Amino acid sequence: MTKANSPITFSCGTTIKNRFMLAPLTNRQSFEDGQLSDDELTWLTMRAEGGFGMVMTCASHVQEIGKGFSCQLGIFGDHLMEGHKRLAANIKELGSIAVIQLHHAGMRTPAELIKGKPVCPSDNKKTNARGLTLAEVKQLKEDFIEAAIRSQKCGYNGVEVHGAHGYILTQFLSSEINKRTDEYGGSLSNRSRLLFEIVDGIRAKCGPNFLIGVRLSPERFGMDINEIKWVCEQLIEGGNIDFLDISLWDVYKMPSEENYQNKTLLEHFSTLDFKNVKWTVAGKIYNAEDVQNVLDAGVDFVSIGTSGILHHNFPNLVIKNPNFNPISIPVSEAHLKKEGLSEKFITYLKRWPDFVK
Predict the structure, then answer these.
(1) Phi and psi dihedrals of 153, rounded to 5?
(2) Short-list 166, 168, 163, 182, CA closest to 106
(3) CB–CB of 190/183 below 8 Å?
(4) Model confidence over 204-254: pLDDT tens digits?
(5) DSSP state, 254?
């Protein structure tokens, strides 16, 4: 697999050795206070060892009240830096690029985790979330930027800003959820203002050689494909990002919205002019054939979730064998332990039917 094994150099100058990124996967293996655990360290280090050119952490929250799940890795304070320094160093020592995903769950924060009301761009009855004041929106922007500065100090090659899957930046982008009447609500340019300010702020503070990516999802949570394509275009034109990570749920699927069903979701995005920006997609890229199909569609590198859980060395296996298929699920707990997953992660995976035997 020559293409899958060829390097990519991003605008910032960082090079990844192949076309494989470990997707940012929720694994619930760290400590309740946001500190890195040895379990999470082992799980991610093994993926670097297994040949992933880029290893991305799980979503790491930039504010304590932005926690999205129990035992989530945090990046909201300097007291958390020691663990991140170890993690970034381990990943880089094995020849991979270390990237942290910056996250805030917003209205998707479970109230019991923060012992209070979750926050949202505007009051949200369905989730009992309260709207942020203008001062709090400005603080949120600063906290994303501070988390990136902290990540750079910890030795990460770069960050990915999580603007997908209904979390807080998606909530701002969504005309369904965002009912603000100030400069962060209303028109699409206002709704995307926070995302753009965060990206521009990170670039200004972290410099031209720091890798910056943005994750977006084009469906659900009030997302509109054309609006997300416009956001992508603005980010590309802005010149401050190195890659876009488009989460499709399934790289082969047709859009859910009837008026967009003239082509697949993947085709909708492959028509964009990415210029100097690289792009990756996620969603049911299971085997070597899927990897090849996605790269042949013009995508620069693939984001691997399930198969990266099943095989820590999925990239090496695919590069060696163009017909490689992962072990079929359900798999045994013993297999997952051998692949570097802790009891906590295995328990979490049991939420999906037919994943664990």
Answers:
(1) -65, -30
(2) 168
(3) yes
(4) 999 999 999 999 999 999 999 999 999 999 999 999 999 999 999 999 999
(5) P
Instruction: Name the amino acid, one letter, at 53.
Output: G
Whole-number Cα distances in Å, 214 to 132, 325, 345: 23, 29, 26
As a whole number of angstroms, the distance between CA 203 and CA 80 comes to 22
* Sign of torsion over alpha carbons 15, 21, 22, 23: positive
Beta strands 119-120; 130-131: pairing state: parallel
**In CATH terms, is domain 8-326 a member of 3.20.20.70?**
yes
Positive or negative torsion for Cα 13, 101, 198, 171 = positive
Tell me, yes or no, if the pTM score tops 0.90.
yes
3 state SS of 216: strand
- Ranges of beta strands (E only) in 12-96 are 15-16, 20-22, 54-61
> How far apart are the C-alpha atoms of 242 and 246, rounded to whole Å?
13
Spatial distance between the Cα atoms of 25 and 37, rounded to a whole number of angstroms: 15
Residues in the chain: 357
Cis peptide before 255 (omega within 30 of 0): no
**Cα torsion for 211, 345, 286, 246, to the nearest 10°?**
-40
For 300-324, what is each residue's pLDDT tens digit?
Answer: 999 999 999 999 999 999 999 999 9
Q: Where are the domains of the chain?
A: 8-326
Q: Where are the alpha helices (DSSP H) in the chain?
A: 38-49, 81-93, 111-114, 134-153, 168-173, 188-191, 193-206, 225-238, 265-270, 288-296, 306-310, 314-320, 333-338, 343-349
End-to-end CA distance of the chain: 32
